[in-house]
Write a structure and sequence with these properties.
Blueprint lengths: L4 E2 L11 E5 L2 E6 L2 E8 L1 H12 L10
Antiparallel strand pairs: 1-2, 2-3, 3-4
Length: 63
């Protein structure tokens, strides 16, 4: 089992999600509520990251 890593550049920030891989799956959690863990496949995680980088979810963030 890999240890949790911050998903923010440089691993900084209290608001940054934490991610790790376990048994071939990607796990994501909010360090402020670490009882909730989301599990997904590496392929779905990669597609999500590409969507974030492409701005697909920018409308969820206040201007």
């Amino acid at each position: 089992m890999d240890s949790w890593q911050k998903a923010a550049p440089g691993g900084e920030g209290d608001d940054a999600l934490e991610i790790r891989t376990v048994n071939g799956m990607v796990e994501i959690r909010d360090p402020r509520n670490d009882a909730v863990i989301v599990r997904t496949t590496p392929r779905k995680w990669a597609a999500f990251v590409l969507g974030v980088k492409a701005g697909e979810f920018d409308h969820f963030v206040a201007p």
